[in-house]
Structure prediction request, 631 residues.
Amino acid sequence: MSDFYDILVIGGGHAGCEAALAAARMGAETLLFNINLDSLALMSCNPAIGGLAKSQLVKEIDALGGEMGKVTDKTAVHFRLLNASKGPAVQSTRMQCDKQLYRLTMKAAVENQPRLHVRQAMVEALAVEGGAVAGALDASGHFYGARKIIVTTGTFLNGLVHIGTSQTPSGRAGELASVGLANQLKALGFDVGRMKTGTPPRLKASTIDFSVLERQDSDADPAPFSFTTRALRTERLPSYFTGTSAETHRVIRDNIQHSPLYAGVIKGVGARYCPSLEDKVMRFGDRHSHPVVLEHEGLDTQEVYAKGLGNCLPLELQYRIVHSVKGLEQAEIMRPAYAIEYDFVQPSQLKNTLETKLIAGLYLAGQINGTSGYEEAAAQGLWAGINATLALQGAPPFVLDRSEAYMAVMIDDLVTRGVDEPYRMFTSRAEYRLILREDNAVIRLLGKGCALRLVDRAHVNDLQEKMKKIELGIASLKSVTVKPSPEVNEKLARRNSPAMTQPTSLYGLLKRHEIAYDDLRDIPGWIPEPDPFVQKQIEIETKYEGYIRRQFEATRKLKEQEKKKIPPDFDYMQVPGLSNELQAKLTRIAPSTVGQMERIPGMTEGAMSAVLIMLRKREPASAAPTEEAPI
Prediction:
């Protein structure tokens, strides 16, 4: 007996859920595997979605018809707008969720999705025939046929958990590692490496003295992640701030030999931007304290996430570290901190659709590609799910350029540059971040989500009405002239804005940094727009009009370079003047466009010119007119 599906998704984390949902919604009969269905969409580490640069990914996932934003809105218990005092390009929403409620809500979405089937099983091997996937075998030997396979295994490939000298094969504390599939990927010829991440201890809330800690309450009037959300849940949980002490640092320094990270036991590469507590203490000896943030993991649990206390020391030392922190003197550890090593596949072996170059029909998404973070994984899962389904349908691939989305920046970075440490999204990675804001993701991508049949047309119609209101609102501001007067200047003074000395438009007044859209209500001639979304877009487009225009102009070169395709069979070994290193790198990466080639590390102007000359020499032969073709 065997089963056959259009698409198999191996791994039910954030990447796997988005991949499977997208494929099923686009019409593919899809089977989602997870080793344990009770851990489907489990938040393995922190209880939050979003954050700096990550919220842009969540908003983009949502605009394309993904599920992460909707589930977060339904399960969030703490809301913060980060960088609220800075410009809109770097403002980011972060929502702290009830972890179990998040898991159950996403699980319900997956289980109730038509054409999406769910199976608890350990996939041991892929079936590959003629250089293409044909299916997969589970640990019981059962065969599942498939036309496409998406692997989203997270930290489970040869996962190894470290706590002191204890080493446990595990994909996550308490769960089995995937060994057979990891070994097969190596045997198939993939370039596989090792990475390392970790998670801090979970503490019992009733044993923490919150009264001596700094409390942070949720924002009073938060905005949702999803454009479809009409109301957020009303339950709220605070966060708390404390910090490590001199005693914390002394315990770590005196016992650093017991850390597998410093004993040379851990070989995987960790992230520089997210060091463990041992790393912070040893690398930054001049720091007397490091921040610790305590976040409740849910409404109905005692577990508290101790951000900043991540380490892989023995449990007895973990207790000494925790008890050395203000407010945690009597804290009980419910789950110890640990480090985990796992296999990843170097992502430069992928096409920009996330299909592997080595095996046709095989797609990789999430931490298997060397990334870090729920949001990065979910965005890749959605991207892979969409492209695998489009390939089944014989449709052109779904590929965005770096000026269109944060997720496109991430995908391009991965497949063009590869990774040498866990990849995390930062606003600094996006050259066009002023036009890739979280607030305009729906404007940028909703139409594309509709074209993919992942977003209802009614939502696009609603957005188009809002766009008309934005255009009319800006025109209205430009049309109203305000003359200097004592009354107007008094109102401006109340907002610390300079007095008017000559007539100007409401549009001109709104361009002032200190004047917000609502501040115009006291100025004669202003017609208020009630829709908060429209208000925000009017204000941003007005204040940053010159900067936005220049960024749009800068994208023209990028788009021109992305239009110049490089044939997949182009032979870089025949290009004179290229170094052996560049020839090998270009052959391995096989850039699909001139723009992608230009972004490959090590490319010089001379190398670019040499390749472009050879490409032009090929053009007459490939573009020679036939008798039927118009000249």
Notes: The longest helix spans residues 457-479. The longest strand covers residues 143-151. The radius of gyration is 27 Å.
